[in-house]
């Protein structure tokens, strides 16, 4: 059986829809992982012990196990406790939480690296501890880790392929559907790889743009 | 008539076994300018940082205009109290501590807008007023990274002044600057002196202290060794330790 | 928490963990090989090799590992490559992680102080000699920890072969979640095994790193 790429164009619409969903899930999970990362980091550093300890356990578990396993846990676990989320939402939560943990580690280190003078400068103006963290420390800490968080975002895009296993109709699952009708796995997976590569390039260009803008304001 | 404005009573502080401040008493009148000099490690910065509770005293009292700054209060109330009194105490640091993620305007308006509820128009008027005073109006929308050290420090002074403080603390404000940038900051401080701002200045610059200050304190090993008008301290110190310090300082810095 | 169930099924998870370990070891070996070749190509003086190296790194880092695995396993027979799931898993994951390792190695080599190369060259060493005798020994020490990070990701990445039905830890967990409806127990059981593997590997990496620092 040789290769025949002529079947691919007729599934163009299906793949395009899958691509749209891949982009949507990447953006939604990316936003969740960004703000989740900030919340986790602040909680890990400033929250009382009773919140901090379970958070540490959660981070430990999520950093030590495969994303695929976590997706199974969230999807089937939520059903178990009676929450039947659409696959898309479960996928966004799984991907978002997974990368929020990684972002949180970056932000925590960055918060601790903010010059002590910044804290003192703000406190001597009369800002409270909370105001100082919110307005002075967090903005600086987050800016400093935009490049590595961008790398996490790129990893997130590629890992979004995994949510196909819990039934999100994104690019990978769209390809599988086409394959189940045409028996042309090589052609479709290659086409899909090309799509991912393209989105990846666009995302990288976007991140470089953001980095340049932030560099200008420092 | 003079009123004691800033008052420090029996101040003591230790880090573990190390006593960095030992029973210090100091009163500063309204409009007075006091310089604190002494070798590094003498406790002069610690004393300054005790005034606004950055480094709280182990024992003793700090008062500003009849209000005790370091009152013993339950944690929550203490926080609120300290945040309140700090608004009346401007502080300028050796390393400026400008907020790099905010423009000059953002640095200066942050606290007035957050804590005093100024409108945007009021805040803008305030920035312009303060920046004009320090001669940096044209830098209003720059980020701190684009400024020279001297300019940064002038912005830091403007930021502190924007809170309309009752007293200004200067913690070696020119020590981190290249020599040619020191004068522009000194000029701004002199201008404040002419306006009768109450100031406490920790400094290594004896000439500046002599020309601007009403009183000079010489500290060594956590105690005030000698205090008096600059003419006495610099020309005719009584204490041996003061003489030694000044002689060494002169030898190191020339002129 | 259904401990009785955990006690009943854990032997199957241990068996699966052995498969995960085998996958991890073979993938690491292949990954390091591909990584070294990729790094050498990217730093070669020949522009053809540099282009090949750059393309390899860019393609394999720019697309999902899962898709690469599917192309190899499901698409392979169409171009005459017949592999069983385990073989496809090792090759797919190894070539994929190799692209990341190539960048790690190149980064370590390039972070060796320029002065080292210049000093070696002024002593009369050739480019290759300087690389072998001066640069690489120093770069080796620098790359142990970042390669450790790659290997850590690789171990978790072996879970992907569950999608081509290799009976390793994640596949086993998925199957038992489906048959027992106890997702938390199955997650904790397999998660604990993953973390033990990663922990042991982490100790090994730290030991290597310490040893490399002393010499």
UniProtKB/TrEMBL annotation, chain A:
GO terms for biological process: amino acid transport. Residues 19-207 form the ABC transmembrane type-1 domain. The keyword Transmembrane applies. InterPro entries: AA_ABC_transptr_permease_3TM (IPR010065), ArtM/GltK/GlnP/TcyL/YhdX-like (IPR043429), MetI-like (IPR000515), MetI-like_sf (IPR035906). It comes from the Bacteria. CDD domains: TM_PBP2. The chain crosses the membrane at residues 20-46, 58-79, 85-102, 161-180, 186-203. Its main location: membrane. Keywords: Amino-acid transport, Cell membrane, Membrane, Transmembrane, Transmembrane helix, Transport. GO terms for cellular component: ATP-binding cassette (ABC) transporter complex. Pfam families: BPD_transp_1. It is found in: Cell inner membrane; Cell membrane. Gene3D superfamilies: MetI-like. It is a multi-pass membrane protein. One of its GO terms (molecular function) is transmembrane transporter activity. Belongs to the binding-protein-dependent transport system permease family. HisMQ subfamily. This is Amino acid ABC transporter membrane protein 2, PAAT family. It comes from Pseudorhodobacter antarcticus.
TrEMBL record, chain B:
Signal peptide: none annotated. Residues 6-246 form the ABC transporter domain. GO terms for molecular function: ABC-type amino acid transporter activity; ATP binding; ATP hydrolysis activity. Pfam families: ABC_tran (PF00005). GO terms for cellular component: plasma membrane. It comes from the Bacteria. Keywords: Amino-acid transport, ATP-binding, Cell membrane, Membrane, Nucleotide-binding, Transport. It is found in: Cell membrane. The keyword Membrane applies. Its main location: membrane. It is a peripheral membrane protein. The keyword Cell membrane applies. Belongs to the ABC transporter superfamily. This is Amino acid ABC transporter ATP-binding protein, PAAT family. It comes from Pseudorhodobacter antarcticus.
UniProtKB/TrEMBL annotation, chain C:
Residues 17-205 form the ABC transmembrane type-1 domain. The chain crosses the membrane at residues 12-40, 47-73, 79-102, 147-167, 187-208. One of its GO terms (cellular component) is ATP-binding cassette (ABC) transporter complex. It is a multi-pass membrane protein. It comes from the Bacteria. One of its GO terms (biological process) is amino acid transport. One of its GO terms (molecular function) is transmembrane transporter activity. Keywords: Amino-acid transport, Cell membrane, Membrane, Transmembrane, Transmembrane helix, Transport. InterPro entries: AA_ABC_transptr_permease_3TM, ArtM/GltK/GlnP/TcyL/YhdX-like, MetI-like, MetI-like_sf. The keyword Transit peptide does not apply. It is found in: Cell inner membrane; Cell membrane. Part of the binding-protein-dependent transport system for glutamine; probably responsible for the translocation of the substrate across the membrane. Belongs to the binding-protein-dependent transport system permease family. HisMQ subfamily. PANTHER family: GLUTAMINE TRANSPORT SYSTEM PERMEASE PROTEIN GLNP, MEMBRANE COMPONENT OF AMINO ACID ABC TRANSPORTER. This is Amino acid ABC transporter membrane protein 1, PAAT family.
